[in-house]
Queue: 4 jobs
Job 1
Amino acid sequence: MMTMFMAPMIQTAKVSGATTVLDAIGNTPLLDLSEFAHQRGVSEDVTLYAKAEWCNPGGSVKARAALAIVEEAERTGKLSADKILIDSSSGNTAIAYALIGALKGYRVHLVMPANVSAERKALVKVYGATLIESDPLEGSDGAIRKVRALVAADPDRYFYADQYNNPANWKAHYRTTGPEIWAQTDGQLTHFVAGLGTTGTFMGIGRYLKEQNPDVELVGVQPEDELSVIEGLKHLETAIVPGIYDERLVDRHLPIGPESAWETTRALARQAGLFVGFSSGAAVAAAIQIAKQLDEGIVVTLLPDDGSKYVSLGIFD
Ligand code: PMP
């Protein structure tokens, strides 16, 4: 009689405390920055909280949007193994696509302005994606124009993720970040302050919060003029306006200058133990301006990424 050789069953250990990298996206902490705010003249009856979005895999808020964009495209059949995922990004979405592409086995091509920080370029390559540089003088709009030209020349080769016009971008925040903030503040927040880039973060969270409580005031933060650069944010009056942007959702616009963003970013490191990027500094500077005008209230802002990608710019020196 022939004995069959049975290979031993190898089972991956499953423990309750472990997760996958993709499942670790979202559910970030809400940090209490009230002391930092009170030291800057904000009333003791006003609290300031900040969503720590660098805690996402890939180190930024954009992991949420990138994952939603990829999974929506998989569901609708727009993305398959024979396609190259392509998009333009000032950096964080690029890093998130590269990370997700590495995990899911997709080729990823990313168009970024040639003058984005060396760290951003390096991080995209760390995850094995291909970096295509666009004209540094044209900024993020130049990257958008370049990706559109590449896709137009060979449409079947690519899945154009198009974060500026893809509703999956804001829906990621409507489904996850918005409900997290609502739950973490026990539904008591009075103001939400966030920067506007693709505007996905603001649109998704803002829509969710307004549905829960129409009195929550939504404050949008932009660089103060066309020449002011705060990486990740757009000056919408002079930029290509994202298709997902709906200006009616912004109750109030607050322009922030780069010096104020840098000063607050440095102060956050030295006085609050938070090493964050400049758009976080801009968001906190704006949130403090809003908070100073209140006698009482709960102000929430969002810190899109940490400071490690900006070290070579020398502003922390
Ligand atoms: N800050 C940084 C550092 C970013 O990379 C981005 C993404 N462009 C934003 C803010 C703005 O986020 P959103 O694209 O969701 O508007």
Note: Strands lie at 30-32, 46-52, 84-88, 107-113, 130-134, 158-160, 191-195, 217-223, 252-256, 297-303.
Job 2
Amino acid sequence: MPATEVLVVDPFTPDAHRIARAATCLRAGGLVAFPTETVYGLGAHALDPVAVGRIFAAKGRPASDPLIVHIASLEELAPLVSRIPASVVPLARRFWPGPLTMVLPRHAIVPDAVTAGLGSVAVRVPAHPVARALLAAAGIPVAAPSANLFSRPSPTRASHVLHDLDGRIDLILDGGSTEVGVESTVIDLTGSIAVVLRPGAVSVEALREVLGEVEVRETAQQGETGTPMTSPGLLSKHYSPLAPLTLYEGLPRAALDRLQADARAAEADGRTVGVLDFGGEQDPGTIATRLYAALRDLDDKRPDLILVRGCDTEAGLGRAIQDRLRRAAAGRIIRV
Ligand code: TXA
Ligand code: MG
């Protein structure tokens, strides 16, 4: 593959010629990274199994992990699904375009490469003007995972994409930093009760306002004071930092004291410590925006260990932030 081309576009009113070039590349089976409101996605023609296969090769992603199909509007959903559950239209009216991914009964037109052979397909309509312009110009559904190498944090800037995927993909549309910073909420609508599979940018509270009952699948359980979780294997497909990461939770003052004491003890032992402390920041939206870039910066410094204090609240975006950090901690959670 030739070198990866980077096209800078205005995030609000992207240049039509540059969008058209990226759209042509997608239609021809190429790989294009583009900004969404959450993180950068790595797009390919969703109905072309060869193109979709390239996504997995570029990311080093296991074929068992299904992709989200991005469409320009609700009107483009029908061909991809075998049935439209009753909750789809009210959810779409409230959250689309936006960071909500709906898992729906799949139509056979969607390749197995996209769904990992499941009977369902995940779909969303992104809100970012660059993503919307690209989907409209391409006129095809676009499969897109986050545009990072497997086990790295999701990219919130074009430079993160270039760092991970330079020479492995055709094109990057550089529309600046993404706004939300954590991925879309994934909700399974195939059963009688809606189930959140991945907490994300749309809060569970907001989903309950529309649907009433919503279950949340507990993916990353909290460890008791420092004890490992029962099934860390579940975490393997998420960001795993280069150094072991320990997450401090609980009463803010006590958690900070414990983190600082542990950092001093490790340094006295001659180890280098990377600290990420969002404890002083009260707004989960601000933490989410900065989270992945901060984790990348920490990894780049190659500390021997990483100590993190995340969000003090589980409400709203706090749930998604703590979910990502707990997965990265892989059971190393200190609750004080
Ligand atoms: O915000 C986002 O969702 C970003 C942007 C680019 O749209 N995309 C993203 O994709 O985060 P990815 O591949 O990193 O995460 C997709 C998630 C995975 O947890 C995957 O297991 C789940 O969606 N998923 C996809 N298809 C599914 C299906 N049919 N059933 C259950 N889960 C599915
Ligand atoms: Mg991802």
Note: DSSP finds ten helices and 15 strands in the chain.
Job 3
Amino acid sequence: MKPAHSVNALKSWVELQGLSTREMPHLRDLLQDKSRCEALHYKALGLELDFTCQRVDSHVLAALQRLAQESNLKDQIQRFFQGQEVNTSEQRAALHPALRNLDEHKVAWSKSITQEVHLELERFCSFAEQIRAQKHQGYSGEAFTDVVNLGIGGSDLGPRMCVQALSNLEAWEKPSKSAALPRVHFVSNVDAWALYKVLSDLDPRTTLFIVQSKTFLTQETLLLAASAKQWLTQNGCPLDKTSQHLVAVTANTALALQSGYKSEQTFKFWDWVGGRYSVWSAIGLPVAIAIGEKKFKELLEGAQAMDEHFHQTPWDRNLPVLLALFGIWNNNFLKAYTHHIAPYSYLLSHFTPYLQQLEMESNGKGVDLQTHPMQVHTSPIVWGGLGIDGQHAYFQLLHQGSHLVPVDFIGLKSDTCPADKAQEHHQCLVLNMKAQAKALAQGRNLQETKKELKETGLSDEQIALLAGHRTFRGNSPSTSIWLDEMSPKTLGALMALYEHKVFTQAAIWSINPFDQWGVELGKKIAQQLKNN
Ligand code: F6P
């Protein structure tokens, strides 16, 4: 195991502390500097990252780069991509990049891993194609019209987010004109209403359940699967035919087979894939059913390209590293303890919950790799939702509240929605996203506010009463991330961007982003309460 470093003892950390207590120019002034703005724009892999609205100058940028170096980031990335035991508390590698790099000649991990991954990928993709082509039937001999994903956490959030994000592909991905593609639904919540609401619209003869669970022990998922099975039998499916309607995806295949799942409908992944990093494995089956094998593989390609970028690119142009460093600057030095995610595309409705698990389950840690209590804050509280809706709900707090809240705005440069006036709608989103980033950065000071109020014809008395309420402090940092378009490749790149951002922050804080012991105690107490 690599010795952990004490991040707050690093020279660059101390330097950054000094820089954060300086009088810094306001963002509105920093934004006047054209060469700074040009230097803080980056493009790669169908993404554009605009960091101009981060509260950084050349001194902060240089010190952040030194922080990456002093944290031995290079070495830590190397160890990760070599498949070394980076998940120290569970004594294993975290090799999700192996799920999307199938070139045996280019990988540092064992070739047998690549071969096994490849085999399973082909198995579940070909199953997905058969479902799409209506070649699999339920007990009545009819093809499946509906697929219901039963799973929670990483067995739900990644696939649910991808299916929604890539639903723009549906129109042109039908296997044949006459075939209707199966609809994909998700149930994660053990509340009976969640399952009931979905099933009440479905026909048991044509419904396929995918039971997704890495451990195959998660109480909520097993209960949902049992109720789904009961729904099948109570609605006409003979008991011995239920397995036709059930698929298992798990790292615990022995238990799935023992529980009656057919081996040809049981797909595996491996203990070195964390739940929140698992959508690239057979956990992606609902995505492959929704968008087809070809597009699913493009999603992997997009992520793989980001792996390569992360692995090879110098820190000052490395997108995940930059995103991570600005996050650390905001969290640990500007004392912004929450981080807001605001997608400006309806297709990304489920992106924030996906990211919440990725960031907070990974980096919400209180001890370092040597189990020393952390001396500095780790993951911020990640929150958010669709930006355009947020503007009319909680953005008030972002603009004038007492907390400093950095924002990641995520938008599409172009959109292909076939609806009438879709371009006008898209333009509305784009302009609003740009306007919010600008308003948060620039603000409007008292003097400007008074001037504007004067121009509306208000009296001095009225202005004195109102100006304070209508002033915006500005200086709130944000990053704007633009996707050229919503495609499997750009989505894959975006997801891997955040995965590696999380890795980089963990490497700097010297924590383990791949375990999640914090979720265990509550589960254990629930079990004890059940047994009592
Ligand atoms: O309780 C948290 C957690 O273990 C997550 O890490 C995981 O993604 C989720 O539960 C579901 O676990 P499983 O896939 O084993 O059912």
Note: Residues 18-84+313-442+477-519 form a domain with the Rossmann fold fold (CATH 3.40.50.10490).
Job 4
Amino acid sequence: MAIDLLPSILAADFSRLADEVKAAERGGGAALHIDVMDGHFVPNLTFGPALVKAIRKHTTMPFDCHMMVQHPDEFVPAFADAGVDWMSVHYEACPHLHRSLELIRDYGMEPAVVINPATAVDLLVPVLPMVHHVLVMSVNPGFGGQRFIPYTLTKIGQLKELRQNMGLTFRIEVDGGVDRDTVASVVDAGADMLVAGTAVFNNGRAEEEARELLALARKADPAA
Ligand code: DX5
Ligand code: ZN
């Protein structure tokens, strides 16, 4: 599976968001990662559908919406309407996960599931056939710029094995602490969608940073 880079706007300069997004796209960004936080599931607040709608016209990248909220079902219609393409919900936030994933699909988006670092991959087996991707958190969600948690590499490997054993095609996304130092290890473990916030946007050179990080990732790809 080809390796894709997904710039995360959480680390962008919000005062010039459209320019930041365009720069990340020129640098090879394949989809835009949008972190939605509600101040309850995680101790931080970020973006709503109005912001998503405002940036939709500035890029052709698919929008990958990572819902870090306690009741994601309530927001599905509004984010679908705002132009989200892929929506991921946390296993830890969804007591009726199957229903949540179906709801996302009913609204024309690709459903995906996210797990926190301390949540085991095996719990996802029943829903793997219905997801576009699995997002493995490699930091505890809520903030950008945190340090990568190494044991999450094992979980990426387990998912890759499950995908093969179950004959499925879902993608494996990793989020948190992905940078020049850690990117080769996540690719080597089997991730094929790499979210990067700080590593892309931290110094106003999103195009160059994205291009260089993607090149490092592709260099580490055993399938390339
Ligand atoms: C963290 C978010 C991430 C965040 C990653 O809760 O889910 O998407 O933007 O940021 P970095 O790449 O800085 O670790
Ligand atoms: Zn995220």
Note: The chain has a mean pLDDT of 98.
